[in-house]
Specification:
The complex is a heteropentamer.
Chain A (H helix, E strand, L loop, with lengths): L4 H16 L5 H28 L5 E4 L10 E4 L1 H20 L1 H7 L1 H19 L3 H18 L8 H30 L4 H6 L1 H5 L4 H13 L7 H9 L2 H26 L4 H19 L5 H21 L1 H4 L3 H23 L17 H15 L5 H15 L3 H27 L11 H24 L9 H12 L4 H19 L5 H19 L11 H17 L3 H20 L5 H26 L18 H16 L7 H8 L4 H24 L3 E2 L2 E2 H21 L4 H21 L3 H32 L15 H15 L5 H13 L5 H26 L15 H19 L2 H11 L15 E2 L4 E2 L1 H22 L4 E2 L15 H4 L7 H7 L6 H20 L7 H19 L3
Antiparallel strand pairs in A: 1-2, 3-4, 5-6
Chain B lengths: L6 H30 L9 H11 L4 E2 L2 H20 L18 H22 L2 H32 L4 H7 L8 H4 L1 H14 L24 H26 L6 H21 L5 H22 L1
Helix pairs in contact in B: 1-9, 1-10, 2-9, 3-4, 3-9, 4-5, 5-8, 5-11, 6-9, 8-11, 9-10
Chain E lengths: L1 H23 L8 H14 L4 H9 L1 H23 L17 H23 L8 H18 L7 H25 L23 H24 L5
Classes of the chains: A mainly alpha, B mainly alpha, C mainly alpha, D mainly alpha, E mainly alpha.
Chain lengths: 1041, 301, 118, 85, 233
């Protein structure tokens, strides 16, 4: 491989060569620059190849024919090669992107760009302190020039502020360097590291100055107003370079410098980094300007990596994997987002709605955000996993907490932005059409996915991108041009095939969940046949969710479980976001889900004790002081998915606003993922005590409260889908309650709920969805009398509500029966009472559902409505059949599970003799009940038909109405505020306290962000003062005042 | 316990006895209430007259399928409830179809009729029906709650969900009755009982004295006849449960008649003393007075 | 003597920074920064100074053989050379900025350039 | 020799600090400030000579005090009126 | 006022750090590791009498390359900044009083001399104090003189650009030659070292330093010219 020096030589040579070209030869100059950048990239790529395929040991390059430390030397190791490659590629792509600007500005700008790239590489390569300083100066000065590529007039001021700041930094750095030199007699970083005690003598002031100067170059929060102004006003292509290239380079410099500082200085790096990560993300919450937001995000990400650098000592040989994963993901994503912002005319976040109608760009946008947040299958995900595990292994819990909190904030504003871009009214300005720019962006997307692949391969855990379900889901990205019919068939076939293939390996519990999630998913997908066109984005998202679910069920190690969990979260987020007005709800879903996922991550990390390959079975071995905390974290994490009360506020909107066929997916299927998690947790860890409190007892309470509040809220909804959504909260409360009872029947009941809730909730969502589709509204009081027009939907709802309310003879009763038997064995009576209370309330909202939609007076505007589309009705009818079958022979599904549960709870198994199911307390014979009820019903019906054989069907308004004949349906359909008396009596329970609580937290965060960011006054001098203040404060903190 | 064909004629016999007893009993109760109010009241055979009259009506209209099904549901609920609970303790003859399920079945089957009724009434499209339904559902859900709690307390007390076993445990003297062994549960259940009997002060659902208002508003002729039949059977069926759970059950028909009469009388007496509650008032009343009793019953059980 | 120069250098840095952080006129800020830069250079040279030795140039006065004992540390000088040149580069750049900034707002008050903030 | 050198050095230092204060205080006209800064630079180059750094001294004199000052004046000449701010 | 007080406080803090540095400083009695190496090896390895020059051009040649690049960059950016939004081609139509006779004549006399001095300084950089940077600055002062006497004079940007670029390329080129013909990038021993103290000695150092001088001179001239060609605001 050619010497790494050529990276610098080519860059410089080309820059000088540009001066020889005539001003008019724009294309020539541009060509030379591109060629040089390509050449530099190639050299780096070659080195990456050589070092990655060889033993990876770094190569030293000496200059002046003299060995270090007497002459400057460079080093090309794997990290250096990768970083320079990323820097050079960023430079190259930005140059391509800047084509028009560069033609306009001429060769001087090109030369500056070349030197910027070269110098950033130099920072990475050099092993000499002063040489490092020179390259830093080059980068700073080149920044001062490249800022001006922007058309934004304000860039000038920003550039000046930047220069002022860099002046201060220079002063500190030089003073530090010279004293460090004086102490050690060398300028070579490695040489200094060898005698680091000399540098650190006397408080390490010299090192402090050098270190703080490099840190300041990282634009640390909060001393970074100057950098933010540059990010905001510079040309996006340059901001991309500033964030990706010079940020990476400076980080690497910090890393090198810490070789000198040794382990005593690492905590300081972590401290500064983590403050930056959390602080900048917090401030970003209040941002309206896209590029400034990205600037904050850059600051945050760099802070995170600095924090990781500070943890270098404990990460060991995984350090490069972790820091590199986050760094490269950040670089690609940030560059990509800045490049993308160049296509957008407006500068508000909402202006990105111009992307609507450009699915490829939206895909790019989504990929970049996923890269930044660290979602699977991107490098940040693997890195985050190993990082958190390693940190937890050393007991650095507070750091984990801060990292995850910051990441959550970041995900919050990024996904909020994404939601706005997708759902807000499309901005009038079109997206710029430039094939060059798009090619650059797509290259970044490809790079991001490529990194995902590589990091997966390097990961200690499996490569997610090679997991068949995920591959299958991502395959739909390629199939997007096909019509919906083909894709739907493929999706269904895929789900069924995967189920069949995996069938032999499932244990009974997994089988039930797999049947509900995969076969159930396929069943719901039948409804998707009714959509037309291509339905861009639906199938990748849906299949991603299903892939996550499929992987979740069979996951054996914590990593696989967590990866599956995140995958299904992302997939479902995109699915939910597709709804018409679902933007805020999808966001809250995402935030809650990610928060939950982070808790799960933290829980696993605590349990894993530093082992990234931790298996789920290992949860059993977690010892006492830690176990309850692990239990608590995991349980809360899972409960965000089951929408337990307190964590439920995302659910109603998300489920209600989703598309017709999405609602049953996210309600009928997705919620079960949380239950599955709880199952896994309880099976592994059993019951845990914290400060003498039985944790399952608390879950019991939460389940009961969820049941009560969910049901009560549902009774007061006017929106049919919201009603069903709240009902899900209640139903999941039951299931949680059952699980938390920690006995045989409780678990059986929870499983019964898994099946039942899937069937009837999917069915109800489909039929209500069909009705909403036909009537154009979801407000129940606007409907009425649809029974004659939509009889099949009516039947589905009727069967659904009978089953759901637990009224015999349908399957819901089985659940109730098991439940009553189960609670007879537990001692926690108070929460049980709540469950009792919530039981009848379910009856209220269910009745309301059927009454106000299908009964009562038909509205004038609905007289011509037809039955719901065939493909919506078909699955409903299948569900009806399933319900009937399950009602008659519940043993079919439950018997094996009953036996399976016996290994965890041997007592309390049911007896399955003949037609009667017996428990220790009672008995239940589903078929007998069905027959008795059926016979009575049939006889009476026959009798009534007989005596009423001549009954005359009357017109709609032919009722006894105080002597009047009403002629308007509105006056006679009593449907709005249906349970007003109930509200009067119990309304206080439905005060949206939880919603207010979370809203208050969000407001608090936003308000503080909005207030605190006024720190950035815009005055360059103030920024410089803040810079110095940062130095002094850090110094004081360091010395302990 | 399992099915034998002989159970069918036995069950029909039970049904016959209970229905007739129900017709007479409701009339007697109405008369008692009237007398307390210094009115003359109806004759005891009034129910039979009404029944004949309703079946005799020739005008017969329908508002649709569910309208048709409403009374069927209603009566199925009443008859089914009767069938799923053994009427007389210790006799194979009058234990009906109780092999199909236990107390839980009975508890939930109570709702079957209400649901069907509400559906049928809804189909009629009459606003007053809907108003009646909302009131009825609101009140019933609140009223059933203390009962459910009490039932659970009893089930815990006897460690079984089988009605027969619960009755069996109460044999051997009046002091063995749940009434005395678990008075709080019984108190809660009896308060609940007041609410579900659709008598004053909890009769705003039907509002029988005003212009027709309530779920059956639109029903007439044979529909109404079915519902009237149910109005005779359903209370008895419910009282049977109360009797079995709290008052030692009945081993013979005389004991049965007496106990059912007395239990029924409780609601009538309360009804003539108190004025009518609005629905939200009754909900609050149940929550404030009856539910806590039920809670206490469970906690000490 | 090294102490004197060094202290002077540090004082110059502080004076320069004080001027840069308190003068609102951009041009004055730059002037102040050049003073601070001079201070830095002075500090650097002072750090390399060794009492009683001569400049690191080999000539008749300092033969090669005695160099080790006679000359002072040449490295800081080389560094300062570089630093000076870089300093003037940055200064020139900032001056060009000043010109353009003045062109946009007709003022040199730093607090006038606050369009970007928060 | 060293005593003399030290005295010279001290004198230089005092003068430099005085000139630096002159250069950075906002009272004087900008032209004077620039000249004062140039003076600081020039005195520094003398100081360098005393510190046995002739190369640095030359550079400082040529670039630091010479060129820089001229650059300042070029710009100052262009932004008349800016001085008031 | 509060701001001023705050700044003073901050600077006191910084001053404390500096004081710590001064307090912890002990002058070396003997040359440290690197310096000793330079003192011992420069003469025979590099062949330059001026050790500072040897360090600048060879041992730390990469720094110097960067340094030259800084100037190049600055010059380019100054050009860029000043042309930013600048209306091309509109010469300033200002009329200035002609410079005095004395200055004009003096200039004509002095410029060649100054140029010669500059060349001397950088050609002898490896022997005596001074070198490319100083010499370059001297060259630029000749241009400055020209600009002062005739403010409207347009310096040939093309020539300056050619000089600076060629010089830069040569610098890089010589550096690369070092990889092939000597021990590494910027190794001066691609040419014979010669005898210490001679003009043609120290390998490529004189050549490199000369080009540095040319380049520095060109950069400064370019900056000066660019600044002088701005219009009054």
């Amino acid at each position: 491989m050619v010497s790494a020096l050529y990276i610098l030589a080519v860059g410089l040579g080309a820059a000088f060569l540009l001066g020889l070209l005539r001003d008019e030869w724009r294309a020539g100059a541009y060509g030379v620059s591109l060629a040089a950048l390509a050449c530099m990239s190639l050299i780096s790529a070659g080195w990456v190849w050589v070092l990655a395929s060889g033993d990876g040991s770094a190569v030293d390059i000496t200059t002046a024919g003299t060995l270090p430390p007497y002459a400057i030397n460079l080093r090309m190791g794997l990290a250096e090669a990768v970083l320079t490659l990323s820097i050079n590629l960023t430079g190259l792509l930005s140059a391509v992107y800047l084509r028009d600007t560069m033609f306009n500005q001429g060769r001087r700008a090109l030369a500056v760009l070349l030197i910027f790239t070269m110098a950033a590489c130099g920072i990475v390569l050099t092993r000499d302190l002063f040489n490092l300083f020179v390259f830093f100066e080059l980068v700073a000065i080149a920044t001062g020039g490249l800022v001006l590529l922007s058309r934004d007039k304000r860039a000038l001021a920003a550039g000046f502020k930047y220069l002022v700041a860099s002046q201060v930094i220079t002063i500190l750095l030089l003073v530090g360097i010279i004293f460090a030199y004086h102490a050690t007699g060398t300028l070579n970083i490695d040489g200094m590291a060898e005698v680091s005690s000399l540098v650190l003598k006397g408080g390490g002031l010299a090192f402090f100055l050098m270190f703080i100067a490099i840190v300041l170059d990282l634009k640390p929060f909060p001393a970074n107003g100057w950098a933010l102004d540059v990010y905001e006003s510079a040309h996006p292509a340059f901001s991309a370079m500033l964030s990706a290239a010079s940020g990476s380079a400076a980080l690497f410099a910090a890393d090198k410098l810490l070789l000198i500082g040794g382990s005593t200085w690492l905590p300081l790096a972590t401290g500064i980094g983590i403050v930056g990560f959390v602080g900048a993300n917090l401030f970003a919450l209040a941002q309206r300007n896209d590029r400034r937001l990205l600037g904050y995000s850059s600051v945050a990400q760099i802070g995170l990596i600095l924090a990781v650098i500070g943890q270098r000592d404990l990460l060991g040989d995984r350090y490069l994997f972790i820091a590199g994963g986050i760094l490269l993901a950040h670089a690609v994503a940030k560059a990509g987002l800045y490049w993308l912002s160049g296509l957008i005319e407006g500068r508000t976040l909402t202006a990105w709605s111009a992307l609507q109608g450009h699915p490829i760009l939206i895909f790019a946008f989504a990929s970049f955000i996923a890269l930044l947040v660290g979602l699977p299958p991107f490098p940040g995900f693997y890195a985050k996993w190993e990082l958190v595990i390693a940190l937890a292994g050393e007991g650095r819990i507070a750091l984990i907490g801060l990292i995850l909190f910051g990441a959550l904030l970041e995900a919050g504003y990024l996904f909020r932005w994404f939601g706005r871009a997708l759902k807000r009214e499309r901005a009038p300005e079109p997206v710029a059409v430039s094939s060059f720019k798009r090619a650059v962006i797509l290259t970044a997307v490809a790079a991001g996915w490529g990194l995902g692949l590589i990091w997966g391969a390097l990961s200690l855990n499996g490569n997610l991108l090679l997991a068949v379900p995920l591959l299958f889901a991502f395959g739909f990205l390629v199939l997007e041009p096909l019509s919906v019919q083909i894709k739907n068939s493929l999706a269904i076939a895929g789900l069924v095939a995967w189920f069949v293939l995996s069938l032999p390996s499932y244990d009974p519990l997994q089988l039930i969940f797999a049947a509900v999630m995969l076969i159930g998913g396929a069943l719901i997908l039948l409804a998707s046949y009714q959509t037309q066109g291509r339905r861009i984005g639906f199938y990748p998202s849906a299949m991603l969710m299903y892939a996550g679910l499929a992987m979740l069920i069979v996951a054996e190690d914590a990593f696989g479980f967590f990866a599956a969990w995140e995958s299904l979260t992302i997939g479902s987020y995109f699915l939910i976001l597709r709804g018409q007005r679902s933007e805020p709800h999808a966001l809250s879903y995402m935030v809650f889900s990610l928060a939950g996922a982070f808790l799960i991550l933290a829980g696993f990390a605590l349990a894993a004790d530093g082992d990234p390959l931790f298996t789920l079975a290992g949860l059993k071995q977690v010892a006492a002081p830690l176990a309850p905390w692990v239990f608590l974290l995991l349980a809360i994490g899972f409960m965000t998915k089951t929408a337990a009360v307190g964590l439920h506020i995302w659910l109603p909107g998300a489920h209600a606003e989703a598309e017709t066929d999405v609602s049953p997916m996210v309600s009928g299927i997705l919620l079960k993922a949380g239950l599955f998690g709880l199952f896994v947790l309880f099976m592994a860890m059993g019951s845990q005590q914290l400060y003498g409190v039985e944790l399952t007892h608390i879950l019991l309470w939460i389940g009961a409260l969820s049941a009560l509040i969910g049901n009560l809220m549902a009774a007061f909804q006017e929106d049919a889908k919201r009603l069903l959504a709240y009902s899900s909260i209640g139903q999941m409360g039951y299931a949680l309650f059952g699980l938390a009872m920690m006995n045989h029947l409780g678990w059986l009941m929870a499983l019964m709920f898994v099946i039942n809730h899937y069937i009837y909730k999917s069915m109800l969502f489909l039929s209500v969805g069909g009705v909403a589709k036909r009537t154009g509204t979801r407000d129940m009081y606007r409907m009425g009398g649809l029974i004659t027009l939509m009889p099949l939907s009516f039947i589905a709802v009727l069967i659904g509500i009978i089953a759901m309310s637990g009224v015999p003879p349908l399957s819901g009763f089985g659940g109730r029966w098991i439940f009553y038997n189960a609670i007879l064995t537990t001692d926690s009576r108070l929460p049980m009472i709540l469950i009792f209370i919530s039981g009848p309330i379910a009856f209220l909202y269910l009745f309301r559902l059927i009454h106000t939609i299908f009964l009562g007076q038909l509205k004038d505007e609905h007289r011509r409505i037809k039955e719901a589309p065939f493909w919506l009705v078909l699955p409903q009818m299948i569900f009806v059949a399933c319900l009937m079958a399950f009602a008659l022979v519940p043993g079919l599904a439950l018997r094996r599970v009953d036996a399976y549960i016996s290994q965890f709870h041997p007592e309390g198994a049911l007896g399955w003799e003949g037609l009667t199911i017996t428990s220790a307390f009672g008995y239940w014979s589903p078929i007998s009940i069905m027959i008795v009820v059926g016979v009575i019903f049939a006889s009476l019906f026959a009798w009534l038909v007989f005596v009423n054989r001549k009954a005359q069907k009357v017109k709609q308004f032919n009722i006894v109405f105080a002597g009047e004949r009403p002629f308007r349906p509105e006056t006679t359909h009593f449907a709005w505020n249906f349970f007003a008396p109930y509200r009067k009596a119990l309304g206080f329970l439905t005060e949206p306290l939880v919603e207010r609580f979370w809203a208050a937290i969000v407001d608090l965060l936003h308000a503080s962000a909005d207030l605190l960011r006024r720190l950035y006054t815009g005055n360059g001098q103030t920024y410089a003062i803040q810079l110095l203040a940062f130095v002094v404060v850090v110094y004081l903190l360091r010395t302990g005042l | 316990m399992s099915f034998e064909w002989i159970k069918i004629p036995y069950a029909l016999l039970t049904l016959f006895i209970v229905a007739n007893y129900g017709f007479l009993l409701t009339a007697v109760m109405a008369k008692i209430a009237a007398r307390v109010g210094r009115r003359h009241g109806i004759p005891v055979w009034q129910n039979y007259l009404d029944l004949i009259k309703n079946y005799g009506l020739r005008s017969s209209i329908t508002h649709g399928v569910m309208f048709y099904m409403g009374p069927v549901f209603r009566l199925t609920g009443g008859v089914g409830l009767l069938m799923f609970v053994p009427t007389l303790y210790g006799t194979e003859m009058f234990s009906n179809m109780s092999f199909a399920g236990d107390l839980i079945l009975a508890l939930y089957f109570v709702f079957f009729g209400s649901l069907g009724m509400a559906l049928g009434a809804g189909e009629s499209g009459h606003p007053y029906s809907a108003i009646g339904v909302t009131r009825g559902l609101s009140q019933v859900t609140a009223a059933e709650l203390p009962f459910a709690l009490a039932v659970y307390a009893v089930a815990v007390q006897y460690q079984t969900l089988s009605v027969t076993e619960i009755v069996a445990a109460q044999q051997g003297g009046i002091l063995q009755w749940t009434l005395f062994t678990n008075p709080i549960a019984v108190a809660a259940a009896m308060l609940s009982f007041l609410g579900t009997m659709m008598r004053p002060p909890f009769d705003v659902v039907l509002a029988p004295q005003e212009i027709p208002i309530g779920p059956p508003t639109e029903y007439h002729s044979s529909y109404l006849a079915l519902m009237q039949t149910n109005r005779a059977i359903f209370p008895i069926a419910k009282i049977v449960i109360y009797m079995n759970l709290f008052f030692g059950g009945a081993a013979s028909w005389p004991a049965f008649f007496l106990k059912v009469f007395l239990i029924y009388l409780v609601s009538v007496i309360v009804g003539v003393v108190f004025p009518r509650f609005r629905v939200e008032q009754s909900i609050r009343w149940f929550l404030i007075w009856a539910v806590p009793l039920g809670v206490i019953a469970i906690m000490i059980a | 003597m090294a102490y004197i120069a060094m202290t002077t250098g540090f004082v110059l840095i502080l004076i320069g920074l004080f001027g840069a952080l308190t003068n609102r006129n951009i041009l004055r800020m730059i002037v102040a920064f050049t003073v601070a830069n001079t201070g830095v250079n002075l500090v650097m040279v002072a750090v390399g100074y060794m009492h009683g030795r001569t400049a690191p140039i080999l000539d008749e006065a300092v033969p090669v053989a005695e160099a080790v004992a006679r000359i002072i540390d040449p490295v800081p000088q080389a560094l300062v050379l570089t630093a000076i040149v870089i300093g003037v580069g940055v200064t020139a750049l900032m001056l060009a900025y000043v010109y353009k900034l003045y062109e946009t707002k007709r003022t040199l008050d730093i607090s006038a350039f606050k369009d970007l903030k928060w | 020799m060293s005593a003399l050198l030290i005295e010279m050095s001290l004198l230089l230092s005092v003068t430099m600090v005085a000139a630096a204060i002159l250069a950075t205080r906002g009272r004087q006209s900008l032209a004077i400030a620039i000249l004062a800064a140039g003076l600081v630079s020039l005195l520094a180059s003398v100081q360098y000579l005393l510190l046995a750094a002739p190369d640095v001294a030359m550079t400082e004199a040529a670039i630091g005090s010479g060129l820089t000052t001229f650059l300042f004046f070029f710009v100052l000449g262009r932004v008349r009126g800016g001085e008031r701010d | 006022m509060i701001r001023r007080l705050f700044v003073i406080l901050l600077l006191l803090g910084l001053g404390a750090i500096f004081a710590g540095l001064v307090g912890g400083y002990t002058p070396n009695d003997a040359l440290n590791l690197s310096a000793r190496y330079y003192a011992e090896h420069t003469a025979q390895d590099i062949g330059a009498a001026n050790i500072v020059t040897a360090i600048i051009v060879t041992f730390r040649g990469l720094d110097t390359l960067g340094e030259v690049t800084v100037l190049f960059l600055t010059a380019a950016i100054v050009g860029l900044v000043l042309s930013h939004g600048h209306r091309e081609g509109e010469g300033s139509g200002r009329e200035l009083p002609p410079a005095g006779e004395l200055l004009t004549t003096g200039t004509q006399l002095l410029v060649p001399l100054i140029l010669l001095l500059g060349v001397y300084v950088f050609v002898n950089g490896h022997l005596t104090p001074g070198g490319g940077f100083q010499g370059g600055a001297i060259l630029a002062s000749a241009i400055l003189l020209l600009l002062l006497t005739d403010p409207l004079r347009r310096i040939s940007h093309g020539l300056i650009a050619t000089i600076e670029s060629t010089a830069g390329l040569v610098f890089v080129g010589i550096g690369v030659l070092g990889i092939f013909f000597a021990g590494g990038f910027l190794d001066n021993r691609i040419l014979p070292i010669g005898s210490l103290g001679a003009l043609f000695s120290a390998g490529a150092i004189p050549i490199v330093y000369s080009f540095i001088g040319l380049k520095v001179g060109a950069e400064f001239s370019s900056m000066l010219a660019n600044l002088s060609e701005t219009e009054d605001l």
